[in-house]
Amino acid sequence: MPHGESYEPRNRFTAWMDARLPLLRVMHESFLTYPTPRNLNYWWTFGGILTFCLAVQMITGIILAMHYVPHADLAFESVQHIMRDVNYGWLIRYVHACGASMFFLAAYIHMFRSLYYGSYKPPREMLWILGVVIIFLMIVTAFLGYVLVWGQMSFWAATVITNLLGAFPLIGEAVKEWLWGGFAVGNATLNRFFSLHYLLPFVIVGMVALHIWALHIPGNNNPQGIDVRQGKDTVPFHPYYTVKDLFAVSLFALLFSYFVFYDPEALGHPDNSIKANPLQTPPHIVPEWYLLPFYAILRAVPSKLGGVLIMFASIGILFFLPWLDRAKTRSARYRPLFRQFFFLFVIACLGLGYLGAQTPEGAHLILARILTFYYFAHFLIVLPLLSVIEKPLPVPKSINAPVLKGAGAAAQ
Ligand code: HEM
């Protein structure tokens, strides 16, 4: 199928439809003939992998909701019932629980890929902003879902996080009680969390549709970060990238299956297998691994309100990234200095993740403060400064040049 070829209805029905609601045309042009740069590497398969994860979470979630009971007295038991009595309930629950981790793993790789290759730069700012909205919604959805199990960690995580709202002056206490539906985390809280946990994935689906729309306007970035010439530098999405994405999804499914079938509890906390007990606080309250960096940032600040604001700011700052990094060259391949700071930033994020699981005292606390400072400095100092002082390497004239003339071949 030559790319760029526009849709031709094949029979009278599709012609009739096309004149009224050109859904098939949109699908055809978006997912079959969509011109895609020839040089995308495997880091570009994570968008497809994320779509797979979203579908898996929604399908398993809808089935779980058929057996789950959102009541403080019955929720924990209903989860045990799913695990023991419902046919393949254990499988559906483990796929959903491990699936959340897999979803975040893929999302973080997808984000760091975008950071490395400068995919947030013009003309893809809107695409990036929608991505930030999606990661924020994913975090909220995962937090709400974790509470539904109504284990010790669920209950206490809900208590710690909702209590943070109380730090806001004047309205804090009122907002907290409004969210709780009472004077503590309880049945009303569980009910509304269930309702929202069911709702938000559909909002995410809507955001993903906008995300892909915003991708298809400027088209994909690519590892060289240079604009492609339609036709010369592109291939149709199908079959080239449908097959490649399917292959990547299959590899990813292998890793996913390892956790589901061999170590399903590895990514969770054992305390969450104990039913919620409002009278007994667990010794360490920690979130799931994918929220640990944010938890470390929250606890790095001595004031409660300051911690909450800095934690939200750590995501909020991402919205402004396209305007903080003004360098014209997109890809880190041609920005050697930026590349080093990129890896430093990755290490800072991993370090924050590690510190999020430690008690915030002594050396751990000091390190968490340094890394929190560095996290923000990366966006507010390093990137704006690099935009001005860095001399990027010359970029190739076309995406073919490095292939034809050897890696790194530049424009004359
Ligand atoms: C449910 C979650 C998400 C889904 C299903 C999704 C889907 C996709 C797909 C299919 C693509 C095109 C293929 C690819 O580049 O891998 C893409 C590209 C992109 N996504 Fe996402 N995405 C998600 C989350 C995010 C997040 C959290 C961010 C950033 C905060 C983000 C930023 C981007 C950017 C900048 C691109 C352009 C890539 C390029 O062409 O260089 N996405 N996304």
Name the descriptors.
single chain, about 400 residues, mainly alpha, Cytochrome Bc1 Complex, Chain C, Helix Hairpins, two-stranded antiparallel sheet, 2 strands, binds protoporphyrin IX containing FE
What would you note in describing this structure?
With 412 residues, the chain is an all-alpha fold. The protein folds into two domains: 38-272, Cytochrome Bc1 Complex, Chain C (Up-down Bundle), CATH 1.20.810.10; 286-389, plastocyanin oxidoreductase (Helix Hairpins, Orthogonal Bundle). The chain is built from 16 helices and two strands. It has a two-stranded antiparallel sheet. Helix 11 (292-300) packs across helix 12 (304-319) and helix 11 packs across helix 14. The longest helix has 30 residues, at 187-216. Bound molecules: protoporphyrin IX containing FE. Protoporphyrin IX containing FE binds next to helix 3, helix 5, helix 6 and helix 9. Protoporphyrin IX containing FE (HEM) is lined by residues 44, 46-48, 50-51, 54, 107, 110-111, 114, 117, 119-120, 124, 127-128, 131-132, 134-135, 204, 208, 211-212, 215, 220-221.
